[in-house]
């Protein structure tokens, strides 16, 4: 029998040799092997060489409670001992997922949510919401409503449906042709938009008008849903003006179109509110959640459905509402147990309050870097622990930065003790929601040092 592969030299030699990494060119991963992370405690991670840094990425927007949340670990262990797996397909269920569905209905009651459909993660949740949106209209006797509208710059995962409503060519071009019937409108992105409008409120109105125009062009009776992130995440942390989502809600209601909020990043406190929809005072028809639902400790997700949507399915007498969709791991008992513990800790620690305070600290600190460093073109955030620093080669013309500099900056910041994420020209900060004031200061100091080294 082969010995466990724990030798650090072996791991370094085989790094990226036998696997493809997501969101990376395989040749680049071979030429520039990824950092090997071997440990984590609180908001810090440790690499294979023993270097410890603050994780300002929060895993991948998901480790809200840090890397040493004992209640979640204990819940996973306990559930593995009791029931490590059983299906929730027709005819069977498990106690953990029933308890979780009750807790989630209570947690999202203020958002108008009533039912859960469980998935294995964010991309699954988006795919599920898109499918259920089409089925909802068929059950209601409107089978022609099959199209989707979304925002340019938006990100909705990597399944074919999610990639089709994605608004960034980087996640689309290599996999086209994608799902037909998906259309995009301009995002309320004040720094770069086709209207050359820098006033957030005016831009929100222009984008809402673009939505109305697209609906009129396509025909309202052909559209199933509009989907958007309450704050665009991977596209560069783009928060809309507070008027935008309420306008979208009214437009969708007028046209009989479902509003789906992709809360894979924004749910469970990230924005300084318990959900992104709640931040803007809007009740969607469905909410896609994942990531922080288990703190990243187990692959899991949940699509939340409103009372009205649930009623359409549950009151059907024709058989059209029979759900022919699901995953082997939908409602996995270990994931459900992890989610219950995570939700309990999330509320007990009141991370939403800390996210708001530390998010303001990071945003205000990043704006000072804008004043200091010419390479910084724009800083976005101000709503919880979601901040982006957009780099440019010329601030006056907003000329984009080259592809190499952000990667060099990421490495320089890491050498100063902080892991940040590069997404195109953006440095994205999404640290755990248990971040302290001192931690936030260290993040800003490391970024400043990295920028100064360029």
Annotation keywords:
39% helix, alpha/beta, 5-stranded antiparallel β-sheet, 16% strand, globular, 454 residues, 2 domains, Aspartate Aminotransferase, domain 2, Aspartate Aminotransferase, domain 1, 16 strands, 15 helices
What does this structure look like?
The protein is an alpha/beta fold and about 450 residues long. It folds into 2 domains: about 35-65 and about 350-454, Aspartate Aminotransferase, domain 1, CATH 3.90.1150.10; about 70-350, Type I PLP-dependent aspartate aminotransferase-like (Major domain) (Aspartate Aminotransferase, domain 2), CATH 3.40.640.10. It is about 40% helix and about 15% strand. It contains 15 helices and 16 strands. It has helices spanning about 10-15, 25-30, 60, 70-80, 95-105, 120-140, 160-165, 200-220, 245-255, 275-280, 305-315, 335-350, 350-370, 405-415, 435-454; strands spanning about 35-40, 45, 50-55, 115-120, 145-150, 180-185, 225-230, 260, 285-290, 300-305, 375-380, 385-395, 400, 420, 420-425, 425-430. A 7-stranded mixed β-sheet has the order 4-10-9-8-7-5-6, with helices on both faces. Strands 11, 12, 13, 15 and 16 form a 5-stranded antiparallel β-sheet that branches. Strands 1-2-3-14 form a 4-stranded mixed β-sheet. Helix 13 packs parallel to helix 15 (about 435-454). The chain is globular, with a radius of gyration of 22 Å. The termini are far apart. The mean pLDDT is about 95.
Summary, kept brief:
With 454 residues, the protein is α/β, with parallel strands linked by helices. The protein has helices spanning 8-14, 26-31, 58-61, 70-82, 95-107, 122-139, 160-165, 200-218, 244-255, 276-279, 307-314, 333-348, 351-372, 404-415, 437-453; strands at 37-41, 44-47, 52-55, 113-119, 147-151, 182-185, 223-228, 258-262, 286-289, 301-306, 376-380, 387-394, 399-400, 418-419, 421-423, 426-429.
């Amino acid at each position: 029998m082969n010995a466990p592969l724990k030798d650090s030299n072996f791991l370094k030699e085989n790094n990226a040799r036998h696997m493809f990494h997501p969101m990376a060119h395989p040749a680049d991963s071979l030429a520039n092997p990824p950092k090997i992370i071997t440990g984590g405690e609180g908001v810090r991670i440790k690499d294979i060489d023993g270097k410890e840094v603050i994780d300002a990425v929060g895993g991948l927007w998901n480790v809200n409670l840090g890397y040493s949340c004992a209640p979640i670990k204990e819940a996973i262990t306990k559930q593995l001992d009791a029931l490590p797996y059983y299906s929730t397909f027709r005819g069977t269920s498990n106690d953990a997922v029933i308890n979780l569905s009750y807790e989630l209905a209570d947690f999202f009651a203020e958002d108008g949510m009533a039912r859960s459909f469980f998935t294995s993660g964010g991309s699954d949740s988006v795919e599920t919401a898109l499918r259920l949106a089409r089925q909802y209209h068929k059950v209601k006797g409107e089978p022609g409503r099959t199209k989707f509208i979304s925002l340019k710059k938006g990100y909705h995962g990597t399944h074919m449906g999610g990639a089709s409503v994605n608004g960034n060519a980087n996640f689309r071009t290599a996999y086209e042709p994608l799902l037909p019937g998906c259309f995009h409108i301009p995002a309320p992105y004040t720094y770069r938009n086709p209207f050359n409008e820098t006033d957030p409120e005016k831009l929100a109105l222009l984008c809402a008008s673009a939505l109305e125009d697209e609906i009129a062009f396509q025909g309202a009776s052909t559209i199933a849903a509009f989907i958007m992130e309450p704050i665009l995440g991977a596209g560069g942390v783009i928060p809309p003006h507070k008027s935008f989502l309420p306008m979208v809600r009214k437009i969708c209601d007028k046209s009989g179109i479902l509003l789906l909020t992709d809360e894979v990043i924004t749910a469970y406190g990230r924005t300084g509110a318990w959900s992104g929809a709640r931040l803007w005072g809007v009740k969607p028809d469905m909410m896609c959640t994942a990531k922080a639902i288990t703190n990243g400790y187990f692959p899991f997700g949940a699509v939340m459905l409103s009372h009205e949507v649930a009623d359409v399915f549950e009151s059907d007498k024709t058989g059209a509402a029979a759900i022919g969709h699901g995953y082997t791991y939908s409602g996995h008992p270990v994931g459900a147990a992890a989610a219950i513990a995570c939700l309990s800790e999330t509320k007990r620690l009141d991370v939403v309050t800390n996210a708001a305070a530390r998010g303001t600290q990071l945003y205000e600190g990043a704006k000072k870097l804008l004043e200091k460093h010419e390479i910084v073109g724009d800083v976005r955030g101000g709503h919880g622990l979601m901040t982006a620093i957009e780099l440019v080669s010329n601030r006056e013309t907003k000329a984009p930065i080259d592809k190499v500099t952000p990667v060099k900056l990421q490495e320089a910041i890491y050498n100063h003790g902080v892991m940040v994420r590069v997404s195109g020209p953006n440095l994205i900060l999404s640290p755990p929601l248990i971040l302290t004031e001192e931690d936030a200061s260290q993040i800003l100091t490391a970024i400043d040092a990295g920028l100064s080294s360029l």
